[in-house]
């Protein structure tokens, strides 16, 4: 099969579910074909690794250790594959590459220009990535919206690509928003019409329009959009607001997007089984409702903990439980009143010393009141500090990240001691740990996520660890180290003895990153089950 490109652009607002459209379209190919998602971001950071999650949402970590946009989390969840860092292209990477080429003399004698040098380089990067992954279908999500100054080079590059490709090898899906203004109970398609004009003035003619809206697109709106976009009505699709993003492939299939896209690309149609698997899980009726608190620093923007939220939903759907989530901000002092209302809690990852001391009382409350809790990355470190201070009597116990204390129960990883640059230098990506018999071991075993020699693989993103000497002391307490890294012996999993606390599971890893609807993260399953009791 010849390589096929599907380009996804968007309009009105950048947060419009371009990834949903891309992932849900790729979904119909991913069982038979290899689908490479590529994301083009307009920002000048090389990657989002150093961005504040409040500005950019969660930083997703791939198995290869790359720090990428949170959309890749959704791609991995929808497309059943493991992405690689090269699939994330930012303007930072583009300009760094161009300047390197210029210094090397690749453009000798030439004046280096945005067009054609930068646009050619963008096309080359997309094509090289696609070639390197060796896959059949490339979904390219163009960040930003048509008309953004920052994204213009990408739109021009896409235009050139279309020009170079054979008919049937290049498909352009344009996603727009159809508002219903207050007071007028009618969908308004003018913004969509205008965005198609904007695309046309850039030499781009979308093959498919997908309209996001509060309610399903009316037949009148569909007709208007088709008319102004020179498309047949069956090329206009609707994604209304839905309770679960996992229902979107099904919703698009009902509108026959799979048949249309297969047809336009000239690929023989294949009916997969995955949709049925998802539908069966989603059919699990919620017989119960539980309330989980996410106690963290970046709670002002829900997207900051996007994968944690998804992983909770995965467990909920599989166990037939409705999950209500509250975000409890550790910057304020009302942590205890927040967690009091919850059946269970998650203390996820973050960086820096803000709000740490505010937290300790809340963590003590969680422990003393037997609230089931999953501690992730910084969560594990804070839980250890609280235990060291309040149970083991090490009053000044702290992390070297927050204080220069000699009682650094959390200390800098050996591998970090000489690190100067902040970019991509943490302990990152997929790592193996060896588990001992424990509650955590049982959870990984029942999820079939452990090897014959008791190894589990999760992804990591940290600079600090439980001090190896302190870990020895812990073994004499009720808090047990139950998993260490296979290579360096770093503490990776800790749990409270089960007769002391119903669910007190901690990991230095980010188990939320590998949770899938059809293969939910074992530690999230454990938490939700404990809350149901
Ligand atoms: N700040 C902590 C560290 O660097 C935890 C990081 C995290 O939660 N991802 O080790």
Report on the structure:
The protein has 533 residues and is α/β, with parallel strands linked by helices. It is 35% helix and 22% strand. The protein is built from 18 helices and 21 strands. A 9-stranded mixed β-sheet has the order 11-10-12-13-21-20-19-16-17, sandwiched between helices. α1 runs parallel beside α3 (71-79), α14 packs across α15 and α16 packs across α18. It is globular and about 70 Å long. Bound molecules: glutamine (GLN). Glutamine binds next to β17.
TL;DR?
This protein has 533 residues and is an alpha/beta fold. It is built from 18 helices and 21 strands.
Q: Give the names of the bound compounds.
A: glutamine
How many whole angstroms does the radius of gyration measure? 25 Å
Instruction: Fill in the CATH topology of the largest domain.
Output: Rossmann fold
CATH uppermost class of the largest domain:
Alpha Beta
Let me know the number of strands: 21
Largest sheet properties: 9 strands, mixed
Helix content: 25-40%
Q: Give the helix tally.
A: 18
Question: Superfamily at the CATH H level of the largest domain?
Answer: P-loop containing nucleotide triphosphate hydrolases
Class computed from helices, strands and strand pairing: alpha/beta
Number of domains: 2
Mean pLDDT: 94
Q: How would the global form be characterised?
A: globular
The spatial strand order of the largest sheet comes to 11-10-12-13-21-20-19-16-17
Query: End-to-end span in angstroms?
Result: 52 Å
Low-confidence stretches: none
Question: What is the beta-strand fraction?
Answer: 15-25%
The CATH architecture name of the largest domain reads 3-Layer(aba) Sandwich
